[in-house]
């Protein structure tokens, strides 16, 4: 399976790294293009993969093309290309709806995909917008590609705004929580680097526990909370504060901003 990348920034590189690490493709099956020749040559030397001096060469070479340019660049890029309907196009351009891609591409060949920052460590939560015009074979291919960088979920496109709150932007909130938790430990004398490591692992492990458990998150809270103990004191303190309201409010703000940007 030859995979091409139009644009090879951080997200495209994370995807390519996951595909190569999991041996889904070989380096000979990768072709990428970048705007600058100097950037292309630097990546070729570092990655030992082939770069193309034009986007059309990526199209011609590849079975699957990952469109990883900025949203404002899409029309200019796609408007200059001839793309056979046999090519599967996976767009990771944030905020650019599938309907807009249909100006340039057949509905049968395009899927909008939304990975998150954690793709760079193989732990993305990626949403793939449902498109019933795309064949099951191509849909399965997209799923396989993005499982190389984490977990995937298929969603109606009108739920991608919700997904942004849950997984696209939420890492920033989780990093804030980790940093605040670590700073609380620093207050009592623990070095910051150790506090960040401990807090980060606690968040990572808690996420894994929640994913692998049939219990609800609140039931898991009860499992940690001994009667009259330290944890229940902390939980009650958060319940009495604005913690939950603050999280809900920040989620609402993300939805509102996304709606404003997409003109809803």
Strands in their spatial order, largest beta sheet: 3-2-1-4-5-6-7-8
Per DSSP E runs of 2 or more residues, the count of β-strands stands at 8
Residue windows where pLDDT falls under 50 for at least 5 positions: none
Number of helices: 12
Shape: elongated
Radius of gyration: 21 Å
Structural class: alpha/beta
Largest sheet: number of strands, sense, barrel closure = 8 strands, mixed
Question: How much of the sequence is in beta strands?
Answer: 5-15%
* Gap from first CA to last CA: 38 Å
The ordered H/E elements are EHEHEHEHEHEEHEHHHHHH
Helix content: 40-55%
Mean pLDDT: 95
What are the key terms here?
264 residues, alpha/beta, eight-stranded mixed beta sheet, 12 helices, 52% helix
Explain what the structure shows.
The chain has 264 residues and is α/β, with parallel strands linked by helices. Helix content is 52%, strand content 14%. The chain has twelve helices and eight strands. The chain has helices at residues 10-21, 37-47, 55-61, 74-78, 98-101, 136-147, 160-168, 170-187, 192-212, 217-224, 230-240, 243-262; strands spanning 3-6, 30-33, 50-52, 64-67, 88-91, 110-114, 124-129, 150-155. An eight-stranded mixed β-sheet has the order 3-2-1-4-5-6-7-8, sandwiched between helices.
